UniProtKB/TrEMBL annotation:
Superkingdom, natural source: Bacteria
One Pfam match: Abhydrolase_1
GO molecular function: hydrolase activity
Family annotation (InterPro entries): AB_hydrolase_1, AB_hydrolase_fold
Keyword set includes Metal-binding: no
Annotated protein name in UniProt: Alpha/beta hydrolase
Biological source species: Arthrobacter gengyunqii
UniProt-listed Gene3D superfamilies: alpha/beta hydrolase (3.40.50.1820)
Residues annotated as domain AB hydrolase-1: 43-300
Keywords of the record: Hydrolase
Length: 311
């Protein structure tokens, strides 16, 4: 990684053109033969990050995973170094359908180079919402999936009450029409990042200064705040349309799903995540982890053990 940033010593950076945008991130090196399989023969694992972060959120587990997998850790469109196209009136540019297509095409690109087809998926927060759409729209592509600290989007909006709205106020702030949330956040991106992350169970303690600074720098780049808002606007509009259509059609992805959530977070206190995921993806298993929202950064050893056991 860049000087001062921890983790990802087994990785190289990439910038790949897919689906009309550039997706950036890191992929484990083919010349790294440590661990079972060695090099490009290792099974593929896609890691998708959450808000308001980038692929750097995996820095505490990435190198250990690279011993066993060909690991691909991209920035979602609108985040990190990836493209930040302007949103459309219907917010479709940032629909989870488009973001899932980005991910699948990216894995097809690397699969042709590294010799893999299907892949495993571990995704946190916003990335897990992309992952849920990926399972629905691209059946058979993912061998196993793990979602971290979310419940299905449709269920979360349907059960919204005052307690949830206060805990996840940003869900309702970011979806306000442009340019109000953009203008307010762009005035002080660091205040937004540090307050959103720092107000959770673990505070800012688990986040090394260089990583936190990288999250702030990413949100400070041109178009980043607008893209983040469009991600949430899509989740409250077009994504719900897609989710309702799937439920009306009885679509339930047939893939092994493991869900983990923070024992000290909003998902634990406000929802029954295993029951909800069991309806969306039959056979889903899971449990709470001794952490808040940012599981791979707050409880990396426990999350890593779960990932290695499941995948």
């Amino acid at each position: 990684m860049a000087e001062g940033l921890p983790g990802f010593t087994r990785f190289e950076q990439f910038a790949v053109e897919v689906n009309g945008i550039t997706v950036t991130g890191r992929i484990s090196r083919t010349d790294d033969t440590g661990g079972p399989g060695g090099g490009s023969s290792k099974p593929a694992l896609l890691l998708l990050h959450g808000h308001p972060e980038t692929h750097l959120m995996w820095h505490r587990v990435a190198d250990a995973l690279a011993e066993h997998f060909t690991v691909v850790a991209p920035d979602l469109r609108g985040y990190g170094g990836s493209s930040k196209p302007a949103g459309e009136a219907d917010h479709s540019t940032y629909s989870k359908r488009e973001m899932a297509r980005d991910a699948v095409l990216l894995m097809e690109h690397f699969g042709s180079e590294r010799g893999f087809g299907s892949f495993a998926l571990c995704a946190h927060d916003r990335g897990a919402r992309v992952g849920h759409r990926l399972l629905a729209d691209f059946p058979g592509v993912v061998s196993k999936a793990m979602f971290l600290d979310i419940a299905p989007t449709l269920d979360m909006y349907a059960a919204t009450d005052r307690a949830f709205a206060e805990a996840y106020f940003h869900w309702f702030f970011l979806i306000q029409p442009a340019p109000l949330p953009e203008a307010l956040i762009e005035a002080d991106p660091r205040a937004y990042v540090e307050n959103i992350i720092g107000s959770r169970y673990a505070g800012l303690g688990p986040f090394p200064a260089p990583v936190l600074d990288a999250y702030v720098a990413a949100l400070s780049s041109p178009g980043a705040v607008h893209a983040m808002c469009e991600d949430y606007r899509a989740a409250a509009t077009i994504d719900l349309e897609h989710d309702r259509a799937d439920r009306d059609a009885g679509l339930t992805p047939a893939v092994p799903l493991r869900v983990l959530w923070g024992a000290h977070g909003v998902i634990e206190s406000q929802f029954d995540p295993l029951a909800l995921w069991g309806k969306a993806v039959p056979g889903a298993t899971g449990r709470a982890v001794d952490a808040g929202h940012y599981l791979p950064e707050e409880a990396p050893e426990e999350v890593l053990a779960e990932m290695l056991a499941f995948f």
